[in-house]
Amino acid sequence: MALISETHTFDGVTDVTVFGYFLDWNTNYLGNADIWAGQGPDTYELNLTLEGASWFMPHLRLNSGSTLDVTITDVADGGDRTIETLRLGDGTHDITLSDTRVAFVRGDDGDHTITFGNPRTTAVELGDGNDTITGGTGRIDALMLGEGDNSVALGDGRIDYLEAFGGTNILDMTGGAGDVRNAKLGGVSNTVVGGAGSIDYLELGGSSNTVTGGTGFIGSIAARSGNDTITLSAGADQISLGGGTNSLTTTGDFIGSVLSYSGDNTVDVGAAAEVRSIGFSDGVDVLNVAGRVEGATLGGNDDAVTITATGRIDSLHMGGGNNVLDVAGELGVTQMYDGDDTVTVTDGARIDSLNMGGGNNTLHVDAGIDGFIDNVRMNQGADTVTIVSGFVGQMDLSDGDNEVTMQGGEIRALQMGQGSDLVSLSGDARIDTLNLGSGLNFAYLYTTASIQNITSYDDADVIRTGDGWVGSILTNAGDDRIVVGDGGAGYVHSWTGVNEFITKGGFVDAINGGDMVDYVTVGSGNVGTVRTGAGNDRIYAYEGSIIFASLGDGDDRMQVGAIDFLGQVFGGSGNDWFRFTADIGFAQIDGGGGTDTVDFTRASTGLTLSLNLDGQLQDTGVGEFGLVEIENARGGAFADVITGSDDNNRILGLGGNDTIYGLDGFDNLQGGGGDDMIFGGADNDFLYGNNGNDTLNGGTGDDNLFGGNGSDVFVFEDVAGMGRDRVRDWTNNWDRLDLSDFGFADFAAVEALAADVGANMEITIAADQVIVLEGFQKADFDAGDVILV
Questions:
Q1: Residue 95: which of 134, 138, 52 has the closest Cα?
Q2: pLDDT tens string 701-741
Q3: pTM to 2 decimals?
Q4: Most exposed residue of 112, 138, 610, 788, measured as fewest CB within 10 angstroms of its CB?
Q5: What kind of fold does domain 597-787 have according to CATH?
Q6: Backbone φ/ψ region at 662: left (φ over 0), alpha (ψ -120 to 50), beta
Q7: Do 279 and 240 form a contact (C-beta atoms < 8 A)?
Q8: Per residue in 536-588, pLDDT tens?
């Protein structure tokens, strides 16, 4: 097998014979040149030089029945030469054109290397070989390459239409400022390197595509399928990413739109870049923005968006997957749909509106002193919010068991939905308005954290404040527990339910309970006003102060310890009980309607108390009290002097040698322990000495006298209307009757008035002066039973 090589020159003048074919020029014109190099098994080689001033050839065909390798060199001599159609067969072809215009180039499946010069080429169509095309300054209307490995390098010229399929395709535009109007690249992989020129339309159909833009503009990129990597520094009108794993990086200028209907896409928008719109459907997408994106819509899978400190997205829609959003820059309106989404806000970020979907979402805000979110809405689901710093205008958490933790920062208004929610504040965190929805809710404030206004609705709530001030706390239905810390509060109100209020060291302007049972405990701080409303309420004040308390309707109880100050207390209707366990300085107590009691069982000294001074201040020994509408009293362990009123009093002296005056009314008077003196006064009274050697004087009216244990004296006075008094527990040889006020001469005068009536002995001094000793007979009556002087 031999190599047959020929070298020839086409100059428009000199006739040549090529592989036996005679070619004669006729006035710079050569007709159709159809050169057949011959059959195999030989290999043929043709080296052809083009030169001359001006000539024309309509058709040049170079072919062989074997293999024909062709090298064409076009001399750059400024000649005006034209080959209308160049037809290349199989083999290797190396063609360099400078001044000669070749309108049409058609090649079979060989490997072609063609360098174009200045003239315009209408069409190039090559077969399935490996082709290398280098453009010059001229224009190529259409360049169509086969399914081999193709490379196109463009200079300052232009390609209107480029088509390359099959293998590995390369389009390199770095050689000049040339433009490509329309390029369609298929094959296994495609590589496009941009230059100063522009690309109007680029279609990528390979399984692996790489586009590196230059300084020129790209009108549109359409990546059909495969894995695409696109890097742009200049702008583009539209980029469509295919169904593979795609990466788009834009470092500068403006891109109109980025689209993808399938595929996993990663888009990086540089600090100097801007994208008008991004629209993705299926696929797992990643969007990193350091520049600006006007609008971005991502599909329904697990997508991730990062906005750096220099970045901004005007409008963002994330689909129904488990999405991740990290924001350090600016974000306009954001819509996230169903799925468990995670949003992290840092570094001075600014968000206009964040709407998270119905999954179990997580929001972490550490936006610094300048960062803010105007509006946050989290739909149904168990959501978790953590705020370290930054400002949030409106936050609305819908139904679900939600948790909000603030270590700092501020929320202007926080609305919780239905569900069992937990709100916890610490550090310098602040909420202007907190609305707790229906459900078992908890709100805790620690250190100096504060909430201006707290409102809760149905079900039981637990609210605990700390060192920060709370303007108002309002709860509705449900059994609520409210603990106000050292920071204090303004207005605290619970409407219905069995509610508990506890104050610590701070000042509380007002506490208002509802119409069921309320429990109020006052700590070391001060409370301006306490109103418990209807219900059997309980108030415990062991320290601090209360300026005004109104217990409302119901049988209420108030227990007061070593309080700094107790101003005015109004019991309202119902049977109220006021118990004092330590000495206090001052108090005005108005029992209101019902039967009310003051209780000094824990008094530290003897008590001097009157229920009959109608609010006049009295020094009781354990504080100055003004009492109004108080019917009952209980003394302490020391010697007390207690005076009732015209009402039906119930007075208990307890320990010590007490003195008790019932005055008018149907009284129940009990001495308790000690040697007590009890005076019933007018009306029908019950007197009980209890333990000790007591003295009982029923006064006027029909009285019942119980001496109790000890040696008791029953005193009767010679007054009209003394009544029919009954000694209910006479103990012979221990108890005595003091009749000294009647002036009896001796025991016989008394005995003469005594008679047994059934099981009792009665002494009838006058019709309205009768003494009945129950269970006692006259036979046992002797002088030792009476005191006459």
A1: 134
A2: 999 999 999 999 999 999 999 999 999 999 999 999 999 99
A3: 0.77
A4: 788
A5: Alkaline Protease, subunit P, domain 1 (2.150.10)
A6: alpha
A7: no
A8: 999 999 889 999 999 999 999 999 998 989 999 999 999 999 999 998 888 99
